[in-house]
Specification:
Length: 335
Amino acid sequence: MNSIKVGIIGCGSITRFRHAPEYADNPYVDEIIFYDRNTERSQALADEFGGRIAKSVEELWNDPEIVAVSDCSSNETHHIITSTALRKGKHVLCEKPLAVSVEKAEQMIKAQQESGRKLMVDHNQRFSKAHQKAKEWIASKELGDVLTFKTSFGHQGPEHWGVNQSNATWFFKKDRSHSGVAGDLGVHKIDLIHYLLDDEIVDVQSFRGALDKMDENGNPIEVCDNVVSVLRTKKGRLGTASFSWTYYGSEDNSTTIYCKKGILKIYHDAQNQLIVETKDGEIINYQLEPIQTNDNQTSTGVIDAFVDAIIHDKEPAVTGKDALSSLKVLEQMLK
């Protein structure tokens, strides 16, 4: 397979800033077909990125030339769109969180297994150079075993990032977002901890609330805008996690890993994205790449990894089962 045509379902901000430009830059992708219920939105992206539009989702399913699909729909339809795409013979890159419940995510994994197609989930933090370098350090055991960790992900909220720049955003709606900031930002960091530590979070104690955000009618939003959790992994590591839509200053996307012989600080410093501090006082600074933020859109590497898995028939870098294990932790956080 030398080149592929891809479809994108849902033409909001995640498509405009991440999926579409990264497919357009990928040498193996020769056409993007956009579908959105709002035809003006899909046409605008087709004009911007040099693709074409599908007038209906059935047109996209029934096009034998479309090999793969990005599911960029809102959370509550992932299990329907991704499962249908797989059963129609398409490989799928699904946005996170995988689904609004573990039960629905399991339906998607069943569809993937029965179809024999690839399912990858957009947990993009695995692809950042600082996180990959930190994983190398942890795996090498040069700093000894990991004991504890803390991780944060917060910014000013999706109403500043979404396509309409409005408090009417679907992220604030219980029936569409389901999990609020936990599913928007938190699930990224759950996946990251699983990846970095080669471990799994098994015990969760959590506080959450809608502390500040208001919807378009001036009422408190129906989902959480802040979550603070205490976590324990299968291998006995202890950690804390904070996720927020109310960090009204610069974005925080930092993680600290405390080992027996030193500390790894990831995305604490704008210049040195990874700082290694050893027990005996040595400091090693890595200048790798800035973290992608809503204000600084850079290539995530996710699209390239997805296309590479299709072209070279490899297992995707983030499988449905990986995403399911993160979703199980997310459900515990929301209990």
